[in-house]
Design a protein that fits this description.
It is a single chain. It is built from 7 helices and 18 strands. By secondary structure, the protein is α/β, with parallel strands linked by helices. Strands 3, 4, 6, 8, 9, 10 and 11 form a 7-stranded antiparallel sheet that branches. A 7-stranded mixed sheet has the order 14-13-12-15-16-18-17, with helices on both faces. It has a 4-stranded mixed sheet with strand order 5-2-1-7, with no helix packed on it. The structure holds S-adenosylmethionine.
Length: 361
């Protein structure tokens, strides 16, 4: 599993005796679930940048040690003028012995997914608050490729975080849409091809922060994505939609869709081509409702392909496969991807394409 830089206390500017300033924060490096801390030493790089120009104001190394549960950051003293600027604090893993520049985490090319996913704070200082909002931004992709930026909340909400299967889904969809010959997923290749005669209609269930659907709308033209989740995801996902950069002919929307509620008529009547589900099978209790929604959607859209990405977290999740089969949804293709884990281990993310067998013989 990959590990995420998390702000336990978001950065703040403090006045020191004599008028100079310091910037402090408290971080940890933990899994998506927040249930385990990184148990290996990692060199980190802490960077203060100006919000608008991204000019680096200050940079210093820091070490995360195996066995730690938190790591204080204290930068300074700085000139009092610092508080006039709106700044951002970022923490990234240094690459080898030399600290890495705070560039974007490369998900989509060499050197692949990093073990530690960097975090950028919300802006703070200037005329606004001296304390950063309880948010963390993830930035993915080299600048000449997909330049994906997604906000997460710093608390422990399930819906307002990015989960590992979402990261793998973004890479998988990007590989397919880029025609990567190493990935063989014929159904998805047809759907994601750049030259489509009609727009691609996509719905994502349990979208959380919206990273997968947003990435798709940023990588494909003529792609219309409806992100859905419970009400608690609405604020963060709409914030992410507001800063997203879908291609000029693509669009993003959000609406609440609770699997336990009946589907509204418009959702039942509007057909879709692709249904995305990432890291939504961890809770066996919610699987009957999830599968029932998938079945309803495929009733209307008999050609739709469902892409389910999952990381097995509990044995009870296997019931998902039985429920899908009982609903007449057939596994048409499956695949997997490895994400890095600590001590040079790997973690498996599984992908399953489901659909109506008669329509996809
Ligand atoms: C583990 S998170 C995954 C979020 C996102 N797909 C990702 O991979 O980053 C599971 C998501 O399913 C959503 N969820 C759980 N039960 C739900 C329900 N009954 N109706 C709609 N969404 C639900 C949660 O709110 C949460 O956003």
């Amino acid at each position: 599993m990959v590990y995420y830089i998390r702000f336990l206390k978001t950065p703040k500017i403090q006045k020191l005796k004599g008028g100079s300033l310091s910037v402090s924060a408290l971080i940890c490096i933990a899994t998506d679930l927040g249930d385990a801390f990184l148990a290996q030493d990692v060199d980190l790089l802490v960077t203060l940048t100006l919000k608008d120009s991204e000019k680096v104001l200050h940079q210093e190394p820091l070490s995360w040690k195996a066995g730690k549960r938190e790591l204080p950051i204290l930068l300074g003293p700085f000139h009092p003028q610092l508080s006039q600027h709106i700044i951002i604090l970022s923490v990234s893993a240094a690459d080898g012995r030399k600290p890495r520049s705070p560039s974007l985490d490369s998900l989509l090319g060499n050197p692949g997914v990093p073990l530690v996913i960097s975090g950028w704070s919300a802006p703070f200082g200037g005329p606004g608050s001296l304390v950063a909002e309880k948010l963390v931004e993830r930035r993915f992709g080299p600048k000449d490729c997909l330049n994906l930026r997604i906000w997460e909340e710093t608390g422990n909400s399930i819906a307002r975080h990015i989960w590992d299967a979402a990261i793998a889904s973004v890479i998988y969809l990007q590989q397919i849409s880029a025609g990567d010959s190493a990935v063989k997923a014929p159904l998805l290749e047809t759907l994601l091809q750049p030259e489509r005669s009609a727009p691609l209609r996509v719905i994502e269930l349990g979208s959380g922060c919206g990273i997968v659907g947003i990435a798709l709308a940023e990588m494909l033209s003529q792609c219309s994505v409806l992100l859905t989740d419970l009400p608690e995801a609405e604020e963060i996902v709409t914030q992410n939609i507001a800063v997203a950069k879908p291609t000029h002919s693509s669009n993003l929307e959000y609406r609440v869709l609770d699997w336990d509620e009946p589907l509204t008529d418009d959702l039942c009547n509007n057909s879709v081509d692709l249904i995305l589900v990432s890291d939504c099978t961890y809770n066996a209790d919610s699987l009957p409702a999830l599968v029932s929604v998938l079945g309803r959607l495929v009733q209307t859209s008999s050609d739709a392909v469902i892409l389910v990405a999952l990381k097995r977290r509990h044995e009870s999740e296997v019931v998902f496969f039985d429920l899908m089969q009982s609903s007449g949804l057939f596994n048409l293709h499956h695949d997997s991807m490895q994400l890095p884990s600590q001590h040079d281990q790997f973690d498996q993310i599984e992908f399953y394409c489901y659909g109506n067998k008669t329509r996809h013989p």
